[in-house]
C-alpha cells in the first residue's frame, strides 16, 4: 500500500535502545552477585567472556549521560536476578538493589523511560542446579523475584517485560551456551520448561496489574514472518507451520492464555506435550499483557520438508542454531533480501509485515525491543567509527515502522539493539551493535573507553526530529 499522505511518528513515540544485563554489565561476581547459567555455561574460548563485558556496572552513570546526549526517550535493559536475589529465592542483596536504583534514578532524571526486562537468559545457576525451569519450584521463585522488583522499583518503572525471547531459549537452547558436559536438554524437557515459564509469566503479569495498576507489562518474543520459497502450496503450509510453531504459539499462550491448536497437535503427535497440573489452564488465563514486545532481526524463507535429515541445516553456519525439522519445514534461500556478513537476512519490509500480522492477531500496542545489525566496527586512527552500514540498516527499518504506523499499527516505540556495544553471545566484540563503541578487544580490555560512533550523531538527529530527519 502506497499512501498519499505521510504519517508522522506520534508525539511520545519511545525512541530508545536496548541492552541486557549479562551482555553489558560485567562485574559478574561483585557485590554479592551470584553466578547465572550464562556464567557457568560453555562458550567459545576465542571470544570475550561475560566477566567484564562493557563494564556498565561501574560506568552506568557515564553511560546514561551518553544515552541522554543521544536523546533517548527510553532505555530497555534487563535486571540480573542474580544481583537482586543471589540465592534464587529468599534474601535480597542490598548492593544489587542499589545498582539498579542508581541506574533507574539516573534514567528518570534525564527523562529517559526505563523499560525493565525481568529475565534475559540469565537464570540463577543455583536454581538451574535444582532443575531450572523444568522444576515447578522455579515458577514460584520467579513470581517472588518479580514481586520483589515491583515493590522495589514500581514507583519509578512503568514499563516491564517478562521473559526475553522465550522462543529462542526453547527452540535454540544452545544459543545462550551449553551446559557443562555440552549436552542441551531434550525437546521433551524444553517444552516442559516452556510450559512452566508460561505459567510463571501469566502470574507475574497478573501480579504486576495488582501491585502496579498504572504500569504496563508484556512478553518479548523474537518475532518474524516466514515466506514460502515458491508459490507451491506445500511450501506455504511449511512456512505457516514454522511461523506458528516458532512465533505465534508463544505469543498465543502469553496473550490468549491457551495453547495454539497447531502447536498442541505438534506436541502431542511427537510425544512432547508438557505435563499439565490441575489448575494450570486457569493460571495461563490470568496473563493479560498490556502490549507485545517484539525483537525483529530478519525474516526466513521456508520450503516443504523432505521428511529426512537433509531438512536440518545450521543457520548461517552457526551450529548452535539449527533450522529445519523433518516433517515440519526446511530452510530455503530468498533471492530478494540482503544478508549481513554473519549471514543474517536483512529485510526491512519484513518488519512492516511482521508488525501488521502481530497487531491483526493480538490487537495490542507493539513495542520493538530489538532490531539492529551486528558488524565488526573498527576504530580508525583518527578516533572515529564509520558505521554507515548501521545507519542504512536502521534508516530502512525505521521507514518501514513509519509505514506500519500509516497502516494503522500502534507501534509504541523503537528500541534497537544495542544502546552501547555489548558482548555478542557467540561472536564477542567481533560483532558489535551499539551507537557507542566500547574500546576493548576479545581478551584485551584496553581502557573500555566510550566513543560515539557515526550512527550516534545520526540517531540523535532522528530522535530530535521525531523521525522526520532520516
Ligand atoms: C537477541 C537477544 C540479544 C542479542 C541479540 C543479538 O536474540 O535477545 O540478547 O544477543 O539477539 O544476537 P547476537 O549477539 O548473537 O548477534
How would you describe what is shown here?
This protein is an alpha/beta fold and 470 residues long. The protein has one domain: Glycosidases (TIM Barrel, Alpha-Beta Barrel). The chain is 39% helix and 15% strand. It has helices spanning 21-24, 37-40, 56-70, 81-84, 94-109, 125-128, 137-153, 166-171, 187-211, 233-256, 261-269, 280-286, 348-362, 388-407, 454-464, and strands at 14-18, 74-78, 113-119, 159-164, 216-222, 226-228, 292-295, 300-303, 313-315, 318-323, 330-332, 338-339, 345-346, 366-370, 411-414, 436-438, 450-452. The strands form 5 sheets. Strands 1-2-3-4-5-7-14-15 form an 8-stranded parallel beta barrel, surrounded by 5 helices. A 3-stranded mixed sheet has the order 6-8-11, with helices on one face. A two-stranded antiparallel ribbon has the order 9-10. Strand 9 (313-315) and strand 10 (318-323) form a beta hairpin. Helix 13 (348-362) runs parallel beside helix 14 (388-407). It is globular, with a radius of gyration of 21 Å. The mean pLDDT is 96. Residues 20, 23, 164-165, 168, 222, 295, 370, 374, 417, 424-426, 431 line the site of 6-O-phosphono-beta-D-galactopyranose.
Question: What would a concise description of this structure say?
Answer:
The chain is an alpha/beta fold and 470 residues long. The protein is built from 15 helices and 17 strands. Helix 3 packs parallel to helix 5, helix 7 packs parallel to helix 9 and helix 13 packs parallel to helix 14 (388-407).
Task: Outline the fold blueprint.
Blueprint: E1 14-18, H1 21-24, H2 37-40, H3 56-70, E2 74-78, H4 81-84, H5 94-109, E3 113-119, H6 125-128, H7 137-153, E4 159-164, H8 166-171, H9 187-211, E5 216-222, E6 226-228, H10 233-256, H11 261-269, H12 280-286, E7 292-295, E8 300-303, E9 313-315, E10 318-323, E11 330-332, E12 338-339, E13 345-346, H13 348-362, E14 366-370, H14 388-407, E15 411-414, E16 436-438, E17 450-452, H15 454-464
Helix pairs in contact: 3-5, 7-9, 9-12, 13-14
The chain binds 6-O-phosphono-beta-D-galactopyranose (BGP).
